[in-house]
Write a structure and sequence with these properties.
The protein has 523 residues and is α+β, with helices and mostly antiparallel strands. It has 15 helices and 21 strands. It folds into two domains: 283 residues, Phosphatase 2c, domain 1, CATH 3.60.40; 113 residues, no CATH class.
Length: 523
């Protein structure tokens, strides 16, 4: 999906606000708002587990923000999927090492802007909304039990809001036996696109119409995020509430001016890892602004700014953290041009640069500074190499994990004109197929009704080889029933229509292929 040479350049500007809410004792949400990546992760699994899981997911995705890792759209989309699965492996590994974290997990909803396209990675029940030309569209589908009930027509969206199992998620990253692969979607980016990523503490209490109205009417990003979070809390949300807003801005001639720079903002639990995140993105990061509460009036803010001791309003300035390479440079002694003070043997002190002892001291200081500088550069190179190796190892581990999981599955498909059983899943990873044929049957594809052929062309997924054999037997019975029905019809025609009342419709005597496949799947 390359851009054309004359296509406009789009830039992403974003902000985030995250609040613990009125009921919870700690904030288990984590958020990221950068120039290339925005993300929301809603953690779960106890006081410490949710914090840890959502922070791990943000740290795994943060490298997408770096300029040196972004290239083609397909490359970045594969990188986002791999990063999410690597976060899953890290969460599972940490939960196994620390038993108090058992059962922790997190949702992930992330959007990246690459080459004029949006890339969305999503798993769980956090949501991604896109406001375009005044119309709000939900771009993610909740991986939750109530969404399954809505999709199957058992309940309405209105009933889902008060359903007793509305917080049950069916797919999530973490210490569970659940498929960790995220949904990946790619769409063209338009100027003035506005994204809202939010945790269920917001969308669980605010109607989509309310969200659309706020996103449309409040153009200022920071104010819009503040207002949405505040509205969710006023509406009675009992969960942590987090909003990330990202706007696409058009630059007609990127070479004609210096582009403004935005420091990535980190919200929620991940603010405890600002130093690590600064190292990952290799640029300064800042903690997101706190939610302004109702009692934060202009008069009180002015009093707080003047440090009036009589006010109880606490104004917390965002904390900015530099990457370790710059932190090391800041902490190190630098050459200020000052001449060292040397005490001579006779007790006198001298700062005369023409004094041999002073000149020698200057040379020693300069040599030490050069050695310190080389040492810092060497440490930075080592850290960069280690980071690259870790990313490669994580990607390899995720690919191996996906392949190993795929080999526990089976499906029925076409093979050489007959029905065949395949081990794996009917897809590929980075161009490598994740399935292979294990058995062929003697059922010719040409014998089957069109509905069966359509299903087999897509692959009929099953969970075991024995279940695959059961499906084969089901198909064989269907073929026999269809053959018997055809023979019976031919016999009736030859006898001149005798026993019309006793003859049966073949379509009524055998189940439809699609219904039978569903039943077979349930056996």
């Amino acid at each position: 999906m390359p851009k054309t040479a004359d296509s406009p350049t789009l830039f992403l500007y974003s902000t985030t606000v995250s609040d613990v809410g009125t009921v919870r004792s700690n904030n288990q949400d984590s958020s990221f708002a950068g120039e290339h990546l925005i993300a929301i992760c809603d953690g779960m699994g106890g006081h410490a587990g949710g914090d840890t899981a959502s922070t791990i997911a943000i740290r795994s995705l943060a490298h997408i923000e770096r300029d040196d890792v972004r290239s083609h759209v397909r490359t970045v989309s594969a990188m986002m999927e791999t990063s999410v699965m690597a976060a899953h492996d890290a969460i599972v590994g940490k939960a196994k090492r620390e038993r108090k974290l058992a059962g922790m997990g997190t949702t992930v909803t992330a959007v990246a802007l690459v080459g004029g396209y949006w890339i969305l990675a999503h798993i769980g029940d956090s949501r991604a909304y896109l406001l375009r030309d005044g119309t709000l569209t939900r771009m993610s589908s909740d991986h939750s039990y109530v969404q399954h009930l809505i999709d199957t027509g058992r309940i309405t969206p209105a009933e889902a809001r008060n359903h007793p199992q509305r917080n049950v998620v069916m797919r999530v990253l973490g210490d569970f036996d659940i498929d960790p692969r995220p949904d990946i979607a790619i769409c063209a980016a338009h100027p003035a696109d506005r994204w809202l990523l939010c945790s269920d503490g917001m969308d669980g209490v605010l109607e989509d119409s309310t969200i659309q109205e706020t996103l449309t009417q409040v153009s200022d990003q920071a104010e819009c995020a503040q207002r949405l979070v505040s509205m969710a809390l006023k509406a009675g949300s009992t969960d942590n509430v987090t909003a990330v807003i990202g706007d696409a801005t058009l630059a007609l001639d990127a070479d004609a001016f210096d582009l403004p720079h935005q420091t990535p903002l980190i919200g929620g639990a991940a603010t405890a890892s600002l130093e690590a995140l600064a190292d990952i993105v290799n640029e300064p990061v800042a903690s997101a602004p706190n939610l302004r509460h109702d009692n934060d009036s202009p008069a009180q803010r002015a009093a707080a700014l003047s440090q009036d001791p009589d006010t109880d309003v606490e104004v917390v300035e965002p904390r900015v953290v530099q990457p370790s390479s710059l932190r090391a440079d800041e902490d190190a002694d630098t050459d200020t041009g000052e001449i060292p003070v040397v005490q001579k043997k006779d007790g006198r002190v001298s700062t005369d640069p023409n004094d041999p002892e002073v000149a020698s001291a200057i040379r020693r200081e300069q040599l030490q500074q050069r050695q310190d500088s080389r040492s810092r550069k060497f440490r930075r190179r080592i850290r960069a190499v280690v980071t690259v190796l870790l990313v490669i190892a994580a990607m390899a581990a995720a690919a191996f994990g996906a392949w190993r999981w795929s080999q526990t599955k089976y499906y029925l498909g076409e093979g050489g004109g007959v029905v065949a059983i395949y081990q794996g899943v009917n897809t590929n990873l980075f161009g490598y197929p994740l399935s292979h044929e294990v058995e062929e049957t003697d059922i010719a594809i040409a014998q089957l009704p069109q509905s069966w052929r359509d299903q087999l062309s897509q692959g009929i997924a099953v969970d075991s080889l024995s279940e695959a054999h059961s499906h084969v037997q089901l198909i064989e019975r269907e073929v026999e029933n269809l053959t018997d029905a055809d023979d019976a019809g031919a016999g009736t025609g030859a006898s001149g229509g005798a026993d019309d009342g006793a003859s049966a419709d073949p379509s009524a005597s055998s189940a439809s292929p699609s219904a039978s496949a569903t039943k077979g799947g349930a056996q």
